[in-house]
Amino acid sequence: MRWGRLQPISTVARWIVTRKAVVVDWRGVTLLPMFQLDPGSLELRDECTEIVSELTESMDNWEIALWFATVHPELDGQRPVDALSVRWHDVVKAARESGRADRP
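RE: above sequence
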């Protein structure tokens, strides 16, 4: 079964090289967490791109992935990945705060 349109490898490679998307290497496999993609088009979600850009200066990809999966007091104990759909402005704000806190 195929849904949406598949992204050419060059597009995905550009996302990885420019750090627009979070990818993690695990056991020799590069993983692209799907929460970053629009389910219909498989394009990067704008809100995720904005959040990732706030975190890339101070965190590596694993740290960013963990940030999305960890509950945050700024989000009333929700994980950013769960709050994206309904409170993405709050998630962006939490990312800004986290990014600033982690910068030297």
